[in-house]
Amino acid sequence: MMIRFLKKLSRRVEYLEKRQFRRQVAKANVWFIDIPRTGSTSIKSALSIKYGPAFDKKFHRQSDRKKKASPFKGAPYLDAHVPASQVRKMLGDTVYDGLFTFTFVRHPLDRFFSLFNYRVLVGDLSRDLKFKDYAKHLQKVSTRHPDSPFYKSPYFLTMSDYILNEKDEPLVSKIYKFENREPAINEIEQETGCSFTGKHYEKSEGRENYFDQYDRETAEVVQDFFAEDFKNFNYPKWPG
Fold first, then answer.
1. Which residues are CB-contacts of 153 (< 8 A; sequence separation ≥ 6)?
2. DSSP 62
3. Which of 15, 79, 189, 227 has the smallest CB count inside 10 Å?
């Protein structure tokens, strides 16, 4: 009896939270599709300051490794990186299609190298693992091998998976490029009324030239896997 009551209560709480989330987003009239390693954390933080915690991430990894990650902020049922198709389903077509929705994309070779660096930094990968060996794991799907990009979905999903439908049509109003971040931010500020001049969270320090991390074999492996991103977002292949 008690278990049944608690389950019913949990469903009720979840329903109310989702309804509050939908109302909050509809009122803000904006949503940001957060593709991993595209400089997204600072954008979500700025949106949350103006529009509320539903726009934030669950935690922030501080650049200063002596600081702990900030506590839970985002909606409890919303993962850190949710594809546009799922957000649209959650909000409903009418609400979602009326929003200003935007995202950032990044050169696939640069983004994949950044994903690797992130996993090393947070201790998800051994510091002894070579990037070229990590990239070769893309040639075989393995969800059990801890060094594989297939170990967790944010490490292998394409940018196209996040923001396009099955016909390769965009599910967001605007697609900006990480490489042209400054003019893009100026335009987003005009659209949203937010200020994005604050701290850039999770920024890599001492970032190396990503082209230098590849040889032809490694580049071809990554380019083959993320082929649709090169095509859909018009990025040049290695060596440029």
1. none
2. -
3. 15
